[in-house]
Every structure is written in C-alpha cells, then in structure tokens.
Amino acid sequence: MENSEGVKIESTVVTEEPLISALDIALFVVIITVAYFWYFKRDKQSSSSEKKPYTIQPSSLSSIEQTSNSSFIKKLKSTGRSLVVFYGSQTGTAEEFAGRIAKEGARYKMKGMVADPEECDMADLVEMKEIQKSLAIFCIATYGEGDPTDNAMDFYEWLQNGDADLEGLNYAVFGLGNKTYEHYNEIAIYIDQRLEELGATRVHEIGLGDDDANIEDDFVSWKEKLWESVCSHYGIEETGEESNIRQYKLVDCSEVLPERIFSGEISRLKSYENQRFPFDVKNPYLSKITVNRELHKSGDRSCMHIEFDIDGSKMRYDTGDHVAVYPKNSSELVDKIGELLNADLDAVFSLLNTDEESSKKHPFPCPCTYRTALTYYLDITSNPRTHIMKELIEYASDPKDQEKLKLMASSTPEGKKEFHEWILRDNRNIVHILEDLPSVKPDLDHLCELLPRLQCRYYSISSSPKVYPKFIHITAVLVNYTTPTNRVNKGVATNLLAQLIPTNDELPQPTIPIYIRRSQFRLPPKSQTPIIMIGPGTGLAPFRGFIQERDYARKEGREIGEMVLYFGCQKKDEDFIYENELQEYVANGTLTKLHLAFSRDQPEKKYVTHLLEQNADELWNIIGEKSGHLYVCGDARSMAKDVHSIIVKVVMEKGQMTNSQALNYVKKMEQQKRYSADVWS
Q1: Residues 359, 69: contact at Cβ < 8 Å?
Q2: Is 680 assigned a catalytic role?
Q3: Which residue spans traverse the membrane (predicted)?
Q4: Do domains 72-234 and 275-327+456-519 have the same CATH topology?
Q5: What is the domain partition of the chain in residue ranges?
C-alpha cells in the first residue's frame, strides 16, 4: 500500500518537474521498495521470536526472554544451581511436583530450578556434565491415548528423532498416569529408557504415580528414596534444614488503577472485553449459552443439554473433539474462606516471585483481589496434598491441631493412614480443613500461594459441525454428592452451568469461557465403513455427533455404512437421554440397530456389556468380516475394561484364534484406529 502510494506521488512529481527523468524516478522507486521489504522482513523476523503468547506457568522460561534465555544451562551456571526439574503437565500436578522437588534440593545443597521443556532448548542437556554434581529430574504426565502433554511434545519428538550424546547427564524420572487407561505412564517410561539409551546415567529408578489410587502417596514415597539415591550417588548428606521459605512475597496493590487489575482473565488483561483470535487454553472464547435444558424425564438426578454459540469466533471443531469449559468457584465457598480467616476479600494484592531469576513472576494473573483469586484462579474444592498440611502447621495455635497436621504431613505409616482417612476418604477440601481445625489461621496470601490452579473441565462434544457449524453441544450430568462428614460437595463446572439459563427477553445471554481441544476420536474417513458405538449414560455424547454426521451424509445422497449403537441407563422412563432423536434415526435408517440396556427396570441388573456378549455374531461380522470400526465412550475404570475383555473373547471364539492371537488382533485394531476409546475415570 505504501509502495503504490509512493508510485502515485512520484508520477505526479514527474508531471510537475520535467527536469527529473523517468529513469531517476524508476531508480528511486526501486530503492524505496527494496528498503521497505528489507525493513518489513527484519521486523517480521524480530517479532516472530516474541510471538508466543504470555503464559502464566510456574518457573517456565518466558517467551519474551526466549531468544536469549532458552538455554537453561546458562541460567544454571549464572545462578550457581546444579538441579533442574522439568515437567510435562496438562493439569498442573506434574508442575506442582516439580516445584516441590526443586524446593527440597536446598536440603541436599543442590540449588534447584523448575523448567518448562517447551520453553527450553533441550539439546543443552548434553552440557549438563559441565556443571559439577548436576542432576536433571523429569516429572512427566502421560495424556490422552499414550501421548505426551502439549508442553512436552517437542522434547518427546527430539528424543525420538535425535541421537545426542548424553553421557555425563545424571537423571531421574517420575511419571504421572492412571492405571485405568491402557497406556499407563507410557511417556515417562519411554523418556526414562531413551535417556539411558543416549548415554545418560539413571541416578534413581523411575517412579510411576497412579492417579486412580493415591498419586500423592506414590510421589512422596518415590521422592524420599530419590534423595537417598542422590546422597549415595554424589556422596552428600542431608543438611536437615527444613525448607519452608516462601516462593512468593506479598505486594500491596491498593493503589493500582482499576483498569490494571485482573478480574478472572486467564492470561491477557481485559481479554474477555477485547476478544482476539486464535482461541486456546491461554486465550479462551467467551461463548454465549443459547440452550440449557434438562434431559432427564424424572428422578432426583439431572443431566443437561447445553449449546454454546461460537458464531463469529472463527473456531472450528470436528466431530469427536472436546470442548474445555473454564469454571469458577461458588461464592458461598469463597465467602466462607474470608469469614474463617477474617480477611478482606476485596483487597487488591499481588504475589511476586522471590527468585529474581525466575521468569514466572506470579503464580496466577496479578494484581487481583483475593475474591478474584479464590473464585477464578485457585482450586478450593479438591483434596489438598500433604505439602499443604506441612505448611499449615505454623498457623495452628492449638497443639492438637498442630499434631494432627504434623502427622498427616509425615511419611510414616500412621501419617499416611491418617491423611488417607481424614482427607481422602472423608473428602475434605481446604474449606473443610479450616472449619474442622479452627485454630488454623493461615495468612490468606500464603494460602493463595499454596493452593493449586483451578483447571478447566473437558466435555465430549455431542454435535456435528456439519449440522451445527455455529454451535457446540455438550451433555453434562450435574455432580452433587454427600461426603462421610455429611457435607454436600458440588461439581465446580456443572453446578455453574446449571445456573446459566438463557432467557427469551432482551437481557444479555449468560456466557462462559471455552476453547476446543482436538481429539483422535474420529469417524472412519469413508462414510460407508460400518461402525459399532458403545456409550452408556453420557458416553452417548460423541456418538450423537457421529450419528448426526452420518445422517447428514445420507441426506446428501451418499452411501453410509451400518451404525450400531449400544446405550444404557438406569430407567427408560427416567434417564433415557435423547430418546426421541435416537428413535427417529432408527426410523429413517441412519441408525441400523439400537441396543438398549436399562439396568434397574427389572429385578436383575442389565448392562450394555451383557448385550455385547449376546450379540457376538453381530460384533464379529462388523469388526472381523467387514473390517469395521468400534468405539467406546464412558467409564474407564470398569465399563471400558469389561468391553475390551468381551471384544477379545469374541475375536477368539468367532475368529477361531488363541488368546494371544486375539489380543494381537485387537491391538492391531487400536493401532489402525479401528478400536478407539474416549474414556474417563
């Protein structure tokens, strides 16, 4: 645009100043053009290195400083540190564990730092040997179907494709997984083995944390033995000094202008007022809720059908994807904390990292009010971990409360038993602890430092973009349950969603922050491929989208393959969700067969697994003889495992295979994406 304007100006000059030749003008234009493009390219290259959005991640290397500070080795050397703890985290737990290890390093004369592999040049691991008595620890979660977390993807691929010489690198790995999933701790196990293959020295055996049991106990037990191995390997001794030094210091922000105060934004100040594409985990879209209706016909339980408006957002989704919803804590719980601690929740504050070398300046968006932090940024409903018990000890004025906290913070068998019973079994959150130990009065800013970040909740999308390109549907059960202490715990996201009812008048529609997370749960590329869908309860959600998409193809005149759905619930007249829709799809031929199991409509309970066993011939016909696809969605702990066992049995009997051959056949189906699971525990 500037060039074209320049040409026009210069041509005008030519008509007014005939003494200047056309050649002079042409040369001048060429010079200006070259200068412009040189400047533009330089500016683009300069800005590209700073284009990654600001992310509030503990002890990660900031994108702004990445060009000069992506070398964690330089940072270790310049600050006299020898311990670096990397984390691969999707929900924040691995990140929290990494911070605890780095903090404890001081007890063993190993000054530590936490690092996000996504923000580091991991090739610098080859230089770790240059630092005396150095150690790299990896806290790595396995995510999805045996995938690395988003921030560990580049490191994982570097290990896979590279052949760096890591001789002289001392390391240890702790994995975070869930045994109800098939690919239990797969990424951590791979990293542990691959580092050894590349010449690194394993200082301590890999630890495998199971989130389906007690991952806190797994971590603490592994960590204790880790430090024993570290002492033995380096010939050092524990100093015995407890490291309860705070990572953040309180800053009074009462004089900060209101427009500079965060009010719930995830990363960028005023991002909900000034929305910018693209939308992702750090920059969610504030979507209007246009539909929120009850799906259950009767009974005391609730299941909601909710529709999010994404028109104008430029967001696109595929059938089978997930939508992330950012919740907020109930005002009742937030107010209770303020009351118990006699705190002014509307005071504006900031927490500033005491480690000046850390690029993570704040634990969450600051400055903000305590009310904002407790409402939008901190998890106040989950069970606190043992390190929080330890930090609360100094705030207990009653010796009995002190002793109880000391016991639960300890790693003795008695302490573990007390923590398991009093915190986990009785399902106490931080509010309950402060209520039941009345002498414990922590400083609110310290409590905000200790509590983990409030995480978004993921839901399977229950619509097809072919049919609803401007809307995302979800199917969500309202979570409410009574604990052993006779308290009612409420699901953070579903109870918030239950309150967001759209109106038919001129009032603004309710909104909530969302973004789309891609999934591998996909329909076959060819619409004529037959499929079997197994989804009891809200496991039906993604299959509603599958059926909509196949129905759309049928109406377009395309051939569609067999679609067989197995659905189950408690009672037909109570919680048979989307009944009319499903019956209509059966009537028009889109849904070939609908197998229904109502577990409590007869004396003997009946589940979808019973129906699968009864229809072995149909199963084998589709997955064996016709090379169809099989999908499972729902509970990972029991249902998905039972389905897998039944499939193996059917393959054995109908395919005339041995158990080993049948297992290999099913494994091959999974590798070919013909057997897919979207499950949760």
Answers
A1: yes
A2: yes
A3: 20-39
A4: no
A5: 72-234, 275-327+456-519, 329-453, 531-679
Q: Is 558 annotated as a binding residue?
A: no
Which contiguous run of DSSP H or E holds residue 581? Answer: helix 579-588
606 is in an annotated binding site: yes
| 572 annotated ligand-binding residue | no
Residue 31 CA, distance from chain mean position:
52
DSSP 44: H
Query: Mean pLDDT of residues grouped by 10 in the chain (681 residues)?
Result: 34 36 53 50 36 31 40 91 94 92 91 92 96 97 88 96 95 95 93 98 97 91 96 89 78 96 97 96 96 96 98 97 98 98 98 84 96 98 95 97 97 94 97 98 97 96 98 98 97 98 86 95 97 97 98 97 97 97 98 97 93 97 97 91 96 97 96 93 74
Take residue 397 and report the two structure tokens written for it.
């004025």
- CA–CA dist 33, 376 (Å, integer): 50
pTM: 0.86
SS3 state at 634: strand
| Helix 93-104 × helix 215-234 angle, to 10° | 30
Structure confidence at residue 183 (pLDDT): 87
Query: What CATH architecture applies to the domain 275-327+456-519?
Result: Beta Barrel (2.40)
CB under 8 A, 24+ apart: contacts of 28-32: 29/3, 32/3, 32/6
Residue of 482, 474, 481, 518 whose CA lies nearest to 500: 474
Quickly count helices (H) and strands (E) in the chain.
23, 23
**For 601, which DSSP code?**
S
Quickly name the fold that domain 72-234 has: Rossmann fold (3.40.50)
Pairwise CA distance, residues 411 & 649, whole Å? 44
Q: Is the preceding peptide bond at 367 cis, omega within 30 degrees of 0? A: yes
Architecture of domain 329-453: Up-down Bundle (1.20)
Q: What is the structure's pLDDT at 507?
A: 81
Kindly state the helix (H) or strand (E) to which residue 641 belongs, with its residue range.
helix 639-654
3-class state of residue 150 by DSSP: helix
Residue 402 belongs to what H/E stretch?
Answer: helix 399-409
Cβ neighbours around 471 below 10 Å, total:
18
Exactly one of 124, 221, 426, 680 is catalytic; which is it? 680
Active site residue 411: no
Q: How far apart are CA 241 and CA 102, in angstroms?
A: 15
Question: DSSP labels for 509-560?
Answer: PPEEEEEEE--S----SSTTS-EEEE--GGGGHHHHHHHHHHHHHHHTT---
Report the C-alpha gap between 584 and 108 in whole angstroms: 68
What does DSSP say about strands 563-569 and 593-598: parallel, antiparallel, or unpaired? parallel
Q: Which of 460, 462, 463, 464 is catalytic?
A: 460
Specify which residues 607 forms β-bridges with.
none
205 CB-near residues (< 8 Å, 6+ apart): none
CA 356 to chain centroid, in Å, comes to: 28
> What 3-state class would DSSP assign to 621?
helix
Q: Are 346 and 371 contacting, i.e. CB atoms less than 8 angstroms apart?
A: yes
609 labelled ligand-binding: yes
118 HSE (CA, 13 A, CB side): 21
Count CB neighbours of 238 within 10 A: 13
Is the distance from CB of 659 to CB of 648 less than 8 angstroms? yes
To the query of whether residue 82 is one of the catalytic residues in this protein, the response is no
Dihedral of CA atoms 178, 182, 184, 188 in degrees, nearest 10, equals: -140
| Annotated catalytic residue, options 139, 303, 368, 633 | 633
Q: Write the DSSP assignment of 231-280 as a string of letters.
A: HHHHT-----------SEEEEE-TTS-GGGS-SS-SSSTTTTTS--SSPB
Q: Is 529 annotated as a binding residue?
A: no
Domain 531-679, what fold? Answer: Rossmann fold (3.40.50)
Cα separation, 331 vs 499, in Å, equals 13
